[in-house]
Amino acid sequence: MKYKNLFDGRKVSTFGYGLYKGEESNKGDQEMFNSIVYGLNRGINVIDTAQRYRNGRSERLLKRILYKFKKRKNLIIISKVGLIPNYIKKKKILDKLKIKKSNCLLEYDYCIDPRYIDWSLDNSLKLMNTKYIDFYLLHNPELSLMMENGQKKIIEALKMLEVKRKEKKILYYGIATWNGFRRLNGNNYQLNIKKILKDLEREIGKDHGFRCIEAPISLGMPDILNYKVDKNFNLTNFLKKNKINFFSSASLYEGNLENLAVLNKIFNSISINKDMTNETKKAKVSFPLSENSLRRLFILLENFRKSKIFIKDKKLKLSKLKSIYGTGISFVKTLQFVTSSLVGMDKKKFVIFNLKEFAYNLKQKDINYINSLWKKIKINL
Q1: Distance of alpha carbon 210 from alpha carbon 244, whole angstroms
Q2: In this structure, how many other beta carbons lie within 10 angstroms of the beta carbon of residue 127?
Q3: How far apart are alpha carbons 5 and 139 in whole angstroms?
Q4: Which of these ranges, 138-142, 161-165, 267-271, 354-358, has the smallest mean pLDDT?
Q5: Closest CA to 376 of 302, 314, 291
Q6: 174 neighbors 210 (Cβ within 8 angstroms)
Q7: Could you give the 3-state DSSP secondary structure of residue 194?
């Protein structure tokens, strides 16, 4: 197992568990339990969950994991608050807490009210049966920007997390965003991380606990490579200067790399005066739901086409097991700003595969080649 260092000096495995996947059942819990215990015993020490994941079952599963593993100090546990799971809605927790509707977007199952965050943290600690969470993150805080005074609401939520840090219920806090860093520069719904930290420092000083960002980055979602809040902004330098650890979500495009490869092949074929061979069978492809994500996907496919990139090409099998998921891992491994890559590993076979791939050392010429492709891939996203 390979490790990097968090900014507080602790070691963190270069990849970890994202517990968003898996069947919402006892069978699904057991499969995930077996997978996690297997990986922890082989050196993986990052577990990423959320109040929302698997309708709360993922947080509950941590109680069993911690009882079995018994080495809490060796683990880095991440959880999140903001997206409301069904079990919270059924219990009408927001009504019981008298949460302000102005701090919620109920049509998106989203709440950033400080009182709700306070309750949710205590609830998560109880479900997991742990005294603290290493990183507690606001889940998709970009949704706040759809509200009046959205930026202020984010800061108020972070101030509550600072209170919880001082109570030693969390070590650090931060944000887990899906679209906040994928918006075009100047878009009203783009999260401005520089402004967030500046506003937070103004409110509570520089000795704050904002030390984590989680966001998607993969061969199928490279958008963050273009993220800028001003012309001089550099994400790698910003993270280093502010001692912020970056965890990549959707590191293997949520298991959709095979589907992306088919789209890549079809899209590239429009440059060739030759029909595809499949006339009757349903193409094995998938598409995101939102218009903005579709737009980004089409631009990505066009970049593949213009640069004559076939992500299933033999030249891109720069990995130990020579699969498209090995290719995806190789691409993520070249990104120096990524502290640890989060992967959905609800089954043991995925852990076995990833242990081999993340331990594989790329040659420098392969790293240079992948970096040259990153430059082509991210154009105009």
Answers
A1: 7
A2: 19
A3: 24
A4: 267-271
A5: 302
A6: yes
A7: helix
358 is a domain residue: yes
Q: Which has the closest alpha carbon to 346: 133, 64, 42, 37? A: 37
Give CA separation, 296 vs 269, 292, 293, 301, in Å.
19, 6, 5, 9
pTM assigned to the model = 0.96
> Which pLDDT tens digit goes with each residue over 154-174?
999 999 999 999 999 999 999
- Of 256, 251, 219, the C-alpha closest to 341 is 251
Q: Work out how many domains the chain is built from and give that number.
A: 1
- Residue 213 CA to residue 70 CA, distance in Å, equals 27
Report the distance separating Cα 156 and Cα 81, nearest Å. Answer: 14
Domain assignment of residue 76, given as a range: 3-256+328-371
Q: In whole angstroms, what is the distance from residue 85 CA to residue 159 CA?
A: 23
Sequence-separated contacts (24+) of 2-8 with Cβ below 8 Å: 2/358, 2/359, 3/43, 4/339, 4/340, 6/76, 6/245, 6/339, 7/211, 7/243, 7/244, 7/245, 8/171, 8/172, 8/211
CATH (domain of 70): 3.20.20.100
Q: Has residue 321 been placed in a domain? A: no
Asked if residue 284 belongs to a domain, the reply is no
Q: What angle do CA 37, 35, 122 make, to 5 degrees?
A: 65
pLDDT in tens, 188-197: 899 999 999 9
DSSP string, 1-63: --EEE-TTS-EEESEEEETT-S-SSHHHHHHHHHHHHHHHTTT--EEE--SSGGGGHHHHHHH
Report the pLDDT value the prediction gives residue 186, as an integer from 0 to 100. Answer: 83
Cα(166)–Cα(174) distance, integer angstroms: 15
The answer to the question of residue 282 being in a domain is no
